[in-house]
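Service request form, structural biology core

Requester: graduate student, group of Dr. S.
Request type: structure prediction, single chain
Budget code: on file
Notes: please return the result as structure tokens.

Sequence provided:
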Amino acid sequence: MGTVRLGSVRVRMMAGALAGLLASCADAPSPTSEARVAYAEIVAEEDARGEAGLDRVHAHLESDDPVVRGKAVRALGRLEEAERIGRIEGMLDDPDAVVRIAAAGAMAQSVYGRDPGDVLPALAGRVGSETDPAVLGALAVHLGRLAFGSSAQREAAATAIEGIARKAELEDDAGLAARLGLARGIEALARGGGTDGSLSAELVAAATELSTTASTAADPLTAARVRRLATAALIHTNALTAAHATALFQDEDRGVRRQAMIWATRDGTDAGAMIRTGLRDPDPRVRVEAIRAYDRWIRLGAEGCRGILAAVGDPDPHVAATALGLAAEPCPERELELQRQVLATRVRQLEEEGDGWRLQSRALYAVAGIAPDGAGEEIRRYARHGNPFVRAWAARAAGRAGEVEVLNGLSGDEDPNVREAALQGLGAGVGGGGVDHYLSALESEDPQLVMNATRLLLEHAAAETFVSALLAPLARFTAARRETERDVRVALLEGIGEVGGFPSDDLTPYLTDFDPVVADLAAALLTESTGSVHEAAPQRLPRTPPPDAARIATLAGSQVVLHMAGLGEIVIQLRPDLAATNADRFARLAREGYFDGLTFHRVVPNFVIQGGSPHANEYMGDGLYSRDEISDHPHWRGTVGLSTRGRDTGDAQIFINLVDNVRLDFNYTIYGEVVEGMEIVDAVQEGGVIERAEVVAR
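Core staff response, request fulfilled:
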């Protein structure tokens, strides 16, 4: 096979097919009340996961409205059940491109994370007969993202994508959707790796050409996304040359420059000059990657840590935080004294500025690891701080410095996250010597703290732990009847099984628990301990009613405004067309004041900000789980997603993508997008407070 020549067929593009995104009922050319009612019926049966039947979904597959047909076939794919594949496959022959795009996505989603089986040949077989560029782009996306079980499968998908590259019209503005789909597909294929992480010469050539896609006045952002994705594909497979990376680093788009710097992080042997230039890039996202590349490739050379130590004073807090995280590890011995001085000076400077506790805390944490003997006084002072985020950092620093007295004191802190950090330090420092603190923590109402205490007890004192100490918190959390506290109850049950000696009567009630995961685990433990088979018979909690047609229409015209303390407003457009039930819950909780006063507790530069937890940690949220509503829409920068810990475990915590995070595609629900205030999102740091959330009409 020779070099791919991009562009040969000119056909009309379907309006609204960009990025393989189905048009919403609200945005369809002629929205009707019938279409809205149909979508509400589809949402209801999908949310019930087929427990109430799928009669309406199947009926709407025959609708005269292509948007309705598309949403019906998408619903079948979201069930992720192999037995639906045959019905979905028939929709690949639909006369409307919007439906064929939805069917391609549903086919791939039906086998998410599993061997693609018959799905792969069905999708690949469509390439030869398909003429619509947008559908070809969607086929590329979904062929590339399959979970291949063999080299033969991956090669078959690659061959089909090569065919798409030859067929698709990619030369003018109308071809951008196809170019974007092709770039997404090649990037997913390259990132997935599977049995063979390489790309064929044809796909390397295609990605190389896509990486030079020219910006257009009509749609410069899509053109830039094509270049970003194509560059990422070349990076994943080590096919990006130093010369090409250097050229891409001159790109006007900061996202492309960031990708070039990611290449430097992975293969910086020939990228020293680029990395040094990256430290001065005007965009902080590029500088974050430059610091990471510097740490990997330059830190241990003649220049040592000087670039990192200089970046701890960067005006952008995310760059400075990244640098401080890297400065927590020792520099070459010749620079250790300089490292200590820079970090100590930075702590003093930040204290003088008066509003830098986030960076102060990170700087103190770094000092605690580099110069623990001199950090005790500062750690004790920070341990008395009024802000619990600061005290948690003090606990982490105390763990690094071996300040056991501080850890003992903070293990009884009123804030569960401070206590959890202190227990982590005690576990690492004194092990079994912290048993009393671990046992005390089991009385907490915070799931994360109790999970950590359980782990530490089993790790350091399993033989001395009475099963009653674990049965009590299990009963307490169960009585609250919160689905979203599954993780802590599973941890306690597993601990009970490891300690052993539990009376059967204590676990028998859990056979009919409201959570099937808990019921199944209780059945397994009882079967093992008694030698007789026990069967789970879970009694599920009532589901929240899904939104009706009128409610979905209202959501489509609504925005949620997050008023961030000291920063400004983040305006989120709801997307019920992508995720009706999750958009509905987000709006309902915002209207009820649920988010008022909560924080963004997790901020990861060049990834996401995450928040909306009543306890400011990963394991506390609204009581009922919400179901995933996976769509074809990519996790572009500014999209708002649902934080989960496995399928159908949404707890109302939200995350906002700081960059294009396509690795989250097809796994995490998107139910909104920031339409105003991304500069505020970028400014949010750990502990940023949501003063209030309100729902407004757009």
